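Subject — a protein and its fold
Encoding — discrete vocabulary of local shapes:
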Amino acid sequence: MKNRLMALGFTNALGMGFGLALLGLPSRAIAATTDPASALVTADDAPGDGIYGRFRGDFSLALGASAELDITRQAARPAIFTTLRFYQAVGLTLTGSQSVTSSDPLERRITASVIVEPLFLLRWSKYQHTGRALLDLTIDSLQIHAGVALLEPRGGNFASPTVANLGAGFGVPLQAKANGLWLRSRLDVELGAASPAVLCLVGLEWQFFFESGLVR
């Protein structure tokens, strides 16, 4: 109950979009978490409260590795990434990739982005979850991100150029719970160079939760 109240307070502080959505919080959403008998139990063997472990802490940290397919430059690179999320709603992600072939026009690429995943708190507060962990977590993982990409051309200098990086992504919880192993996919579009570049990243991450002590 304490975690629920903290999350609702955070949701109201996200801004007009989140705040307006929370004004119509149905009473049955409260009843579903305060009355265990009202929780749905599905074939996924997951509680029907729509949380699935996401209130284990106010922050989550994910570490992972992926393949980066640079569609525009016709190159593929291994990449590692880490993502810090606050109540599975907003966060920061860092990704670094390294060239492995001499034909790749880039030596390396590093991105830093702000991510927004608004669907979890909006859907959960309006009791719109299905009670199926795999489906709910996948839907709620839909994200948009914006930041910068620091590029190092082959034979050139790092961060020359530095371009805007925009995109979207989603994840699938392979263990049907928020903490644990996820399959993540992301589409990036680089803007600011001579021509836009499109990249796709697909990989695995491990996510765990922790209490920061910032929210009481």
